[in-house]
Design brief:
This protein is mainly alpha-helical. It has one domain: Winged helix-like DNA-binding domain superfamily/Winged helix DNA-binding domain (Arc Repressor Mutant, subunit A, Orthogonal Bundle), CATH 1.10.10.10. 66% of the residues lie in helices and 12% in strands. β2 and β3 form a beta hairpin.
């Protein structure tokens, strides 16, 4: 992975928010859309971009598309993801996103949501 690719990815707030959300485990596109408050097309464009860079992996489970962080085998990517994790607790937007993620996880458990199975598979 080229350094310019990593830094181009990290220079977008929405991509950083997605990385923040995926650091705690995989999520369905529908939940990313709900948390980020953006339309699905924009979120999918960002997800596709990060997947092409090798930062994300995806899997189709029934009608859901689930994304997770790829194994960071590139040293540059791995180090930058570690740096980002140090910042997550200090940025209010990241904290709010993480709280929304927790609320969605709780709601999925209560409702026994079908896409919860996709995330946990």
């Amino acid at each position: 992975m080229e350094p310019i690719q990593v830094y181009k990815c990290f220079c977008d707030v929405q991509r950083l928010r997605i990385l923040n959300l995926l650091k705690d485990g995989p999520l369905c596109v529908c939940h990313l859309v709900e948390i980020l408050g953006a339309d699905q097309v924009k979120i999918c464009k960002q997800l596709r971009y990060m997947k092409e860079l090798g930062m994300l992996e995806d899997a189709r489970v029934a009608q859901w598309k689930v994304y997770r962080l790829a194994n960071a085998t590139d040293p540059l990517l791995e180090e930058n993801l570690k740096c980002l994790q140090d910042c997550y607790s200090e940025v209010i937007t990241f904290k709010e996103d993480t709280q929304k993620r927790s609320a969605i996880a709780l709601r999925m458990q209560k409702e026994n949501a079908a896409c919860a199975q996709a995330i946990n598979s």
